[in-house]
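Sharing in case it's useful to others searching the archive later.

Someone asked me privately for the predicted structure of IS4 family transposase, so I'm posting the question and my answer publicly. Question first, with the sequence:
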Amino acid sequence: MRLTRLLRNPAVTVEEMAATAQERTAERCIGRPVLAIQDTTSIKSSGGGGLMLHAMIAVDAEDGAILGLAHAQFMSRDKGLRGERKSRPLAAKESRRWLEGGEDAARIGALARSVTVIADREGDIFEAFARRPKDIELLVRAAQDRSLGDGGRLFATVDALPEAGRTLLDLPAKPGRKARQARLAVRFMAAQLARPKAGTPGLEALPASVGMTLVDIREVDPPAGEPAVHWRLLISRAVRDITEALAVAELYRRRWAIEQLFRTLKTQGYDIEGLRIAEDVPRLKLVMAALVAAVSVQQLVHARDGASPQTPLRPLTDAFQPEDQPLLEALSAKLEGKTQRQKNPHPKGSLAFAAWVCARLGGWTGYYGKPGPMVMLQGWLSFYDAKQGWDALAQAKDV
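And my answer, the predicted structure tokens:
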């Protein structure tokens, strides 16, 4: 009943829910090198269109910790409009979401040490390069063989370059591919990307060209029948040597964080595609609430191993309220067993301490494997069930 009232309360909006999450994220970004990773996923398909969610999360570039939600918006995708897209102004295009995400990243990361916005091929948009917010770097996987300021073509020019060097990369197994070690050739170059000659109305007001750096990393002699690894990455800062080129590729590999978030939101967690809510407004509110919760679940998964030289401890306030600490400590004491492996090994007040509690609440025994998103989700839900009882008891004592 309480959830139904929330979803139908006109005073509760998805914009306000997102803004509250963004405010908390901005606090965690202060003084940190931030990766703002954005992508789009479908939440309700309908023929060639449907309802889409575009989201951005802030990630610490040094230790990979998820700092929170940085941007979220819903879009209705209509089928049959593909042929009209070039004649529409940017404000009327779906692609504006990539620019709006960058603007939110600049605002939320205003006090960060640095901010790099990361996007996949859909983010390869000239307007995004030309209108990049000040002090924000942009890293995008190239999708288009763009014209260059000197009349050449982007891909042909980098293909003709000699290799800057080679490196080895361990590729994990995935459906349809066995794990293997790939030998990669590295090339990079500065490029002046020419403004498209035709397309979006208003394009002529943008600069004639925009300077970017292209980093090209491709597999040499892949196994027979296996597609070669090949990344063409555009970044807004200079790359001076192969070490910096490989660092760009490593930053792009962090994009997996938002893919894992979408899996938690869908097949490995909240199953938002299976919602049976006919009305759009309550559906969107529930999806936004699930998105905020899925970010917390991913924060717990990342924090589960505690401190290491690469991952310092994060405070529990990354995913919980300060007043949640007494309940977390009480639950930890109740969940601990007699053996050392059944003791919470993490300092009180840390997110790792809270992750251990949620993992145990979610069914993890402490003995086998590491708790994943599904276990953390169940534990996170159990914690909030316990919190309702805890709060009710506290209110009764105050009466």
